[in-house]
Design goal:
- With about 270 residues, the protein is of the alpha+beta class.
- It has helices at about 5-30, 55-70, 120-135, 140-155, 200-205, 225-230, 240-255, 260-270; strands at about 80, 95-100, 105-115, 160-165, 170-180, 180-185, 210-220.
- The chain has a seven-stranded antiparallel beta sheet with strand order 1-2-3-4-5-6-7.
- Mean pLDDT is about 85; it is low at about 1-50.
Length: about 270
Amino acid sequence: MKINSPNAFAGSLLNHLAAAALVAVTIAACTSSAPPPAPPGGHPQSSRGERAELPAGEVRRLTAYFEHHRGARYMEQHPEPVRYPGWEDFPLVKCRYSVKDPVDGRSKTAEVIMLNAPPEKLARWVVRSCIEAKGSARPADLDRLSRQIIEASGAQFPVAGIVFEAMDDAPRQKVYCFRDGVTVRLAGVRHVTTDQPTDGEIRAAINPATAIEQVFEFARIQSTTRDQYRAAGGSENVQGAAWPRVVRKLYQQAWNTDRNELMIAWAKANL
């Protein structure tokens, strides 16, 4: 604003001071008011599921737990920022990583795109999930859910690509393709092979245009099933190729909040 005289300046200053005083009074009134009561179940929750008041001590403890288990994120090697259809607003990384087969000792290499939550986000999801599922943040429940995340996925969420996994009943490192946190069988990629995937298979596993031939059951990062999702109140179609799309939607919704619907579903079914 252009000031033409001292009187005009003084008037303008008084107006600004008055406006500032009004804002200060408004802020004081808002911050001094009592918080809204917790809904049934005893946990505060905003209408959109964003950050709520959670037990700070348990959040710190679980944050330290997930930080301690960062080594479980074995695919987090050579990360580079990347964009992928359907995930444009999220900080994805593409990793070219290697694992050693525990049986023959051979090294195998693949590529995967991931969106892995930092330790504090994981901790807040776990605490919120246990409160919603059980009505309290009981340490035994928190610990069980946290262990489930590490044992099921290493807290890694594969958006697309190849995940090498050595299952307990078959310790060879095998190829599993993923879409939106769910194992799938893709055209042109050998499913559960113990061989090193070809360059063409690595590219096909990343390529969003590669046809999905089969969709499996478990949704990362805690291995939620379709039945668990439905039992917890989920109403969207989860048959066939619709399941990864639902998992993508719910994981994205959870990313900037404390509420992970798929984690809550697992907690309700297992705690």
